[in-house]
Amino acid sequence: MPADFNGTWNLVSNDNFEGYMVALGIDFATRKIAKMLKPQKVIKQEGDSFYIHTTSTFRDYVLQFKVGEEFEEDNKGLDNRKCKTLITWENDKLVCVQTGEKKNRGWTHWLEGDDLHLELRCENQVCRQVFKRA
Ligand code: YOG
After folding, report:
1. Does 56 sit in the ligand 1 pocket, CB within 6 Å?
2. What is the phi/psi pair of residue 9, to 5°?
3. The predicted structure's pLDDT at residue 2
4. Which of 21, 61, 94, 127 to probe ligand 1 with, by most ligand atoms within 8 A of CB?
5. What is the Cα–Cα distance from 105 to 123, expressed in whole angstroms?
6. Domain named Cytosolic fatty-acid binding proteins: which ranges (predicted)?
7. Atom from ligand 1 closest to the CA of residue 52
8. What confidence tens digit (pLDDT) does each residue in 104-129 have?
9. What global pTM score does this model have?
10. Going from the N-terminus, what domains does the chain have, and what CATH number goes with each?
């Protein structure tokens, strides 16, 4: 049985989101708005099929994927770059590699107690986010 990420999750901490956004080339004005946001994630999981909706008052982002199946991701409304994206299980962690113009780009999700963790990586920057159930 894989880990169960189903639920509605609210951001409670966001370490080095600024560094991650700079690495992605997000402009100053957009970063200023983005770092004030408290995004919510709605995750729907059926086995290895995922729907992750990240919502905020400023932008929304939907990602749908099957673990182990590479797809083209367009990052629309984020940095708007295209990537070849592959998400796999590493034990109970969901590990994403986003291959494209930016080196070392990807993320990892895992559960720790009642919290949802997300590590976002780009180049030499790591952003650590923690979410709690809504
Ligand atoms: O999550 O990929 O759960 O997709 C990363 C923002 C900010 C827009 C958010 C909107 C990167 C302006 C998605 C924030 C910064 C700044 C809410 C993280 C880019 C632009 C949408 C992510 C995965 C894993 C699923």
Report:
1. yes
2. -125, 135
3. 83
4. 61
5. 6
6. 7-24
7. 25
8. 999 999 999 999 999 999 999 999 99
9. 0.98
10. 7-129 (2.40.128.20)
